[in-house]
Amino acid sequence: MAEILDVSLEMRDYIVSSGAETLSECMQCGLCTNLCPWRLVHGEVSESFNIRKMQRQAQLGLDGFDEEEVLFACVTCGMCQVNCPREVKIIENVIGMRNTTAGAGFIPKILKPVVSSVRSNGNPWMGEQSKRAEWQEGLDIPAFSEDTEYLLYVCCNSCYDPRGKKIAKSIVNLLQKAGVSFGVLTAEEKCCGESIRKLGDEELYQKLAESNIGLFNGKGVKKIITTSPHCLDTFKKDYPELGGEYEVIHYSELLGNLLKEGKLAFSAEQAKKVTFHDPCYLGRHNQVFDSPRELLQAVPGVELVELERTKCNSLCCGGGGARVWAEVPAGERFSELRITDAVDKKADILVTACPYCITMLVDACAGLEKGDVLQVMEMSEFLSKAL
Predict the structure, then answer these.
(1) Which domain holds residue 368?
(2) Most buried residue, 24, 67, 97, 240, by CB count within 10 Å?
(3) Rounded distance between C-alpha atoms, residue 311 and residue 244, angstroms
(4) Whether the Cβ atoms of residue 219 and residue 185 lie closer than 8 Å to each other
(5) What is the 3-state secondary structure (H, E, C) of 100-156?
(6) Could you say which of 64, 87, 102 is where a domain stops?
């Protein structure tokens, strides 16, 4: 006889009150599950995670939605959400469910050091706050003032990760060559809080956001350039509700505009077959598709080829939703599929414009031993070589 499960409407109401406001609007059509990138790989997480089932369990307040391999498997890529026929805010529902567990002190073991680092250091990369601005060594970057047009906000990854620091320096190089008026406040900033909010620790996210908003407003910041699409999404969509209203732009958008205005040009030929991986939070979440491609095509010698899954249908690298810190066995990584896509297109270089994507794709390329036929580069690195 089948086990009789207890329906808990109190739990359902608690989940809804924690942010899953559209939970009851899901009609269980299953399209979300069919489109989920977890369906493209095989393994323990893939077998456990079913976004339709998870929402149904939450609708009824049933146990199961809060199991670690279920609740924290979502990469928040948005593929399900942009295709939902009822326009259910699935990512907000997932965050709401996570809020109920994170608020009770439960998060996956591997993510506890990440949260602890944010609480003590203001960033998830275990870096000391006093070293946040070390990426600027050797560069002449002014501090932001009210006479400066843009604040350049460099994400935590690029402040502490060795590869990320190179990306930040490449972006600075491009902005300076184009004559952009910008400054930094890196030493005083905290993490934007995007991953922490996706993880479900709403209280910690708000502390980070309020700290940054107080800093930005106090310094007279009106416009922000971000190095990461995740920071872009958070500043644009989340900070306004806490009093942080700014004109926010990803560096690729700004450079694309400058290219059209004739303020940026590339003269060093790069005779390479290049393909572009659309980061979820730049493309699907914020609809920035054209600028990166226009910039790459402006480089002499570049042959731009498109991947099979591209633009709004781009395949997630697997790093969103705080899963950049997750341990995923070889053979179960979306990033490996992306490397295979690029190799199948016989591309010389796979370019992207997100530090999380770089982390995931570089690791996947090394794991598949494809470094002899494919190079993974952040777009700013590639463009800087073409100046």
Answers:
(1) 265-385
(2) 97
(3) 29
(4) yes
(5) HHHCCCCCCHHHHHHHHHHHHHCCCCCCCHHHCCHHHCCCCCCECCCCCCEEEECCH
(6) 102
Q: Which pTM was predicted?
A: 0.96
**Could you tell me if 69 and 37 are in contact, meaning their C-beta atoms sit under 8 angstroms apart?**
no
Residues in CB range of 158: below 8 A, 6 or more apart: 135, 164, 165, 167, 168, 227, 228, 355
Round to whole Å and give the CA distance between 353 and 250: 9
Burial of 31 (0-12, 13-18, 19+ CB in 10 A): middle
Distance CA 326, CA 72 (A): 9
Q: In CATH, what number is assigned to the domain containing residue 87?
A: 1.10.1060.10
Say what the pLDDT of residue 105 is. Answer: 86
Domain boundary among 68, 102, 136: 102
Q: Helical H runs in the chain?
A: 9-17, 31-35, 44-48, 51-60, 68-71, 79-83, 90-102, 112-121, 156-160, 162-177, 194-199, 202-219, 229-237, 251-260, 290-297, 334-344, 355-367, 379-385
Which residues have C-beta within 8 Å of that of residue 233, sequence separation ≥ 6? Answer: 194, 281, 285, 286
| Neighbour count for residue 30 (Cβ, 10 Å) | 12
Instruction: Single out the residue of 205, 371, 382 nearest to residue 298, CA to CA.
Output: 382
Report if residue 361 sits inside a domain.
Answer: yes
Determine the Cα–Cα distance for residues 7 and 10; give it in Å rounded to an integer: 9
pLDDT digits (tens, 9 = 90+) for 187-214: 999 999 999 999 999 999 999 999 999 9
* Nearest C-alpha neighbor of 153 from the set 100, 226, 214: 226
